Automatic annotation (TrEMBL):
One of its GO terms (biological process) is methylation. It holds the Pfam family Methyltransf_3. It comes from Streptomyces tagetis. It comes from the Bacteria. This is O-methyltransferase. One of its GO terms (molecular function) is S-adenosylmethionine-dependent methyltransferase activity. Keywords: Methyltransferase, S-adenosyl-L-methionine, Transferase. SUPFAM superfamilies: S-adenosyl-L-methionine-dependent methyltransferases.
Amino acid sequence: MQSRPRQRQGQERVITGNRQTSWAFADAYVAEDDALHWARERAREAGLRSVTPGTGAALGLLAATVDAKAVAEIGTGCGVSGIHLLHGMRPDGVLTTVDPEPEHQQFARQAFRAAGFASNRARFIPGRALDVLPRLADAGYDLVFCDGDRLEYLDYLDESLRLLRPGGLVAFEGVFGAGRTVGSGPQPTEVLRLRELLRAVRESQELVPSLLPVGDGLLCAVKR
Ligand SMILES: C[S@@+](CC[C@H](N)C(=O)[O-])C[C@H]1O[C@@H](n2cnc3c(N)ncnc32)[C@H](O)[C@@H]1O
């Protein structure tokens, strides 16, 4: 009996030692095609973050799980996350994607075409999320993916609750804040806002939450 705790400790050490390798394996588990590599490269040149392959795979999975016909995306970037979402959506589904930078959306448009999606599968809306989202239909969306201005995530949460149908899903990219969300010491406003978001989602009676440790942290919640 006395040897049990020692054995458990040993197992924990093995898991800890391999954890980074396991996470790297999980992140690269679903391969990306040429269109995604092209979009990723355009984003890198423009100095933009894109979701990691693992986060992209999770987004595709989530879109398929809710059988998404209508998805709203905040922060088109050069289209990496959009391609993953479109892959998971129904074949007749439409991605509505919002970004204030027309040149980002132009790259995304090309990337979607290269990935084989017909032009009517995506609706590009140029503009800032908080100007555009109020114009979108109540309960008209199966999934909302938030990857725009992290200072505005709490406002995106309010808008998402209005936009989602019951059973729909909201996802926020990057909530680990590159490790700063759980870091001690003074943190920038962006990190403080991420912490507020994490609290608000966890405490909401309207949401069933889960924080997926993919990429830089993908906070997900289903609207009851
Ligand atoms: C990290 S990139 C998005 C990357 C993209 N989701 C992907 O993984 O391919 C963030 C994008 O949000 C856009 N953005 C910044 N502020 C925004 C706002 N207020 N509303 C909507 N988009 C915004 C930026 O122009 C940029 O293209």
